[in-house]
Amino acid sequence: MSGDVYNLADCILQQAVVGSGANTLFLSYLKHSLCAHLISHAAVLKRIAKFEHLDRYHCMGELLDFLEQIIGGVTCRGKQEEGALTKAMLALVYWLMQIYEHALEVFSENNRALNSEQQQMVEKLGLVVEKLAQSQFLLGVVYVGKFEDPELYGLLVKKYELIDNLTAASGFVPPVVSQKNVTINDYLRKAALIDSDTLEMKEFDGRGIEPITYCLQPLIAIEILFNPNCDTQTYVAEFMSIQRLKGYTLSRLYCEIIRACLISLNNVNGTTRESFICAFTFIKVPHILRQIHMQSRLLNPTEYEETAKLDYSPEIVEAFELLLQDSPILDLMDARCACNTVECLLNEMLKNHLINEKQMKMIAARREQDTTGLQKLELNTNQHSIVKFVFRAEPPLVGILKTLGSDYNKVQEALLGMLLQVLSGNSFELILSVATVQGKLKTFISGLIKCNEASKQIPGEMGKVALARAALFDVSFLMLSFIVQSYGSEVVLAENGDSFFEKWVRECLVEKHKSKSPAVMVKLCDQNKVDELIVSLNSPEGLKGSSLKWHEICANIPGLLYQVLMAWENETLSTPEIKKFLDSLKSRFCCFSVCATSWLCAYMQVVRQDELLKPMNMVQQFLTAVSADELMQQENFKERLGLTVQIVRKMQQDFQRLPGTSPKLRTMLQSQNLVSQNPLEEQFEEVWKNVSERGWLPIDSTLVLENLLQSCGPFWLVDKLVQQIFHCKYIREMNKTMDIVFAIMHLDIERCTIALLSQLVPMMLLNKLQLSEIVDPFSRVLAKLCVYCIVATMEAPTGPLSKKRSRATIDGDDLLADGLCPTPKMRKMGSDSCDSSSSDFMLEHAAAAAAAVAFATKEAASGGVSLREPLQGCLQTLFRTFAQYIVSDELSPKIYFMFQFLSLLVEVGRERVKPVLKLIPNGLVQSMLKINATDDMTVGFILRLYDLNATTGRTFAMSDLCLFRNIQMRKDSIKL
């Protein structure tokens, strides 16, 4: 480095090029000085690039010969040289382009001919450019220089464009300088228009054509089961994230989404879930695909410029062509749904302007030969088809919403008739399913709340009007309670909602994973009204003679039941008297049974097990059949009673799931037993057996996995899932299992990712788990799972598009020895369920939404999004663990896993993981380089780890790059 201080390279080169030809003695001395490290390559290249006498062909030829000899050995030996080398390389490339430009100008001026000296110079130039373009290290230095000196790089790009134009204008035929028929122009383009893709990197993801996809179906099953009210854009963001992770084309993504929905629909049992998944598949999915279609074109306008004017999406057409190849699934679904599923999907695609009639007929014709025996879907026939029932639910929903939005006093009877008709059969579940997927659930709920509020009792009102008002109050209360049970209270509760029902939900409604204090409920009651309520129930007229309003009775039922229960416990009241008391309460309004069951279930969560029998029997009394005389006393009481039984049974089942409830007490309940008596390990093994045999996630298995997550915590579940990867014998099986595991972790992707990165992986590195050793290919698949989870957690929507699940946060450390958890302290989690309005289906609104999300997605892809806690802290700890683990110079399988993790991070995550890469501690990559300087380590990998827009990023990148270069050169010299 001392020679550079005295400008030794400059002095030698000045003497070497004094005459018309270069002095070979000085050039040999210059070469000797380079080999002896008296001067740096950066200084030599920088000085050569200053030579301006391009018409001195002998001198130029000697310099090019000298460059051709030393260019393959360019490197750095000190920190100061590294910064100088980037600019020197840029200057050298610019100088080489000047030489070529000069030759082209001479060619044009001399009647399209070059003399022998000029021709020889161009040939020598080609040899130098070839060596430069074939050296990944030199291209890497140029790439860093692109960010180090953007002004010089801009001149270099302009120079190449000038050369390109001169070549075309002069008719010069660029000489071929390689056996692969590559010309000088091709090599210069590679250096001038360099980007990250120019720099090679070994791919570990192996993103070839994946014949079968295993991650989308479990993901969709989880989302539609636990996030039914999720906003359209949330699905869009999640699916596009999967597309980027897997490298799918849009057509492949569309096909896989439809296929996954059909598989889920075929597997589901129960009218409620079947109707929702069917509505999601045939109504929601086409809208999701339209949003993806619009968003992808906003993000990549040049890529889709040719198809912008088409009146259909070519990717949708291609997706259906792929779908038609999967005829077994289509045949199965056609038989199950009793209709041509492809035709039904095409009709919805046509409504969303994703295909035109010509394309629709073409695709339908290809499927028609396989569906000749199937009936056409006719909505007005008695044909039994779940698809037909879902489509038939759309017009009634429109009518109900319109009526709910009208003047209550004018439509009272019509509205009551509509709502009671909805309660018949399975219509209510179908209406809810369609409202949810169309983004109209919020509108439906707000209408029901207003109806319930307007239906409060008016003193002195008599006759038919009073009966209709009472029935409307009861029906709307029951419907809202059912919706809360299905979707969570967050869907119903407005930020400043002060209606009676919203207050009742906040104070008195017991929910799964959301405990309510029965003592607080009792304290909120008015004792005078409770006493009056007791007197009324003991009177012959019952509640008919009470002066209390209906909503006042609902609010004071906790106080009433508490006194009745205490009287029963103290034997002040007998069992027959209790039965008569409860029958009197439930015979007037069905909503009273719901209010009573809610308090009783909350009470049962806090009392001793030997005190549960009486409140359990009281709940069971609300489920006993009502006599025919009682049914005749009130009009339309039967429909309301059916919905009441469903709500009460659901509360029973949620109580059954409580970890503190003993198996003996669970069997005492008359409702369906949803809690397995098997140990947790056996439950998981049974579930996984079903999943692995099928290759997809059954709905029932999804529910069990959710319960296991809540009972045992994320670490326990993730540990069990990752073990399944290590049980695989073949790489294809490992990748399949990894995809399913990744999808299952979306039960709570953030908590599962944190458990994986902060607990499981460090414990595996320290040999604290009974898993197979982390060796390839297991290590590669595990690293891919980690990267997928990191990206999915980073891209999980936040803000107005976010979805937050209302789940209990139970840690695995709290488990008891018998595999059951004590009654946990529930953390209250905020939940702002997203819901779009009915106008969400209007194309202009969809376009605006897609544009907004496309902008946010582009910002995220450019690395402009910062990491959120706790993921950031978790990754910092993980990288520190990596750094502490590298304590020797020996390459071990675990160190190779760390390298695979970083490689997959930059390969799969690309620009999106820039915030993660910034957390890599200084020195970690260099330590890994010294141990793992194999063919797997590449220039492209090293440079992708750093933010080259930052000065520190460029400094560390050049330092690692030169270290890698020197290690490789040392290996080559040993071979010699």
UniProtKB/TrEMBL annotation:
<keyword id="KW-0539">Nucleus</keyword>
<protein>
    <recommendedName>
        <fullName>Mediator of RNA polymerase II transcription subunit 24</fullName>
    </recommendedName>
</protein>
<comment type="similarity">
    <text>Belongs to the Mediator complex subunit 24 family.</text>
</comment>
<keyword id="KW-0010">Activator</keyword>
<dbReference type="Pfam" id="PF11277">
    <property type="entry name" value="Med24_N"/>
</dbReference>
<keyword id="KW-0804">Transcription</keyword>
<keyword id="KW-0805">Transcription regulation</keyword>
<dbReference type="GO" id="GO:0005634">
    <property type="term" value="C:nucleus"/>
</dbReference>
<dbReference type="InterPro" id="IPR021429">
    <property type="entry name" value="Mediator_Med24"/>
</dbReference>
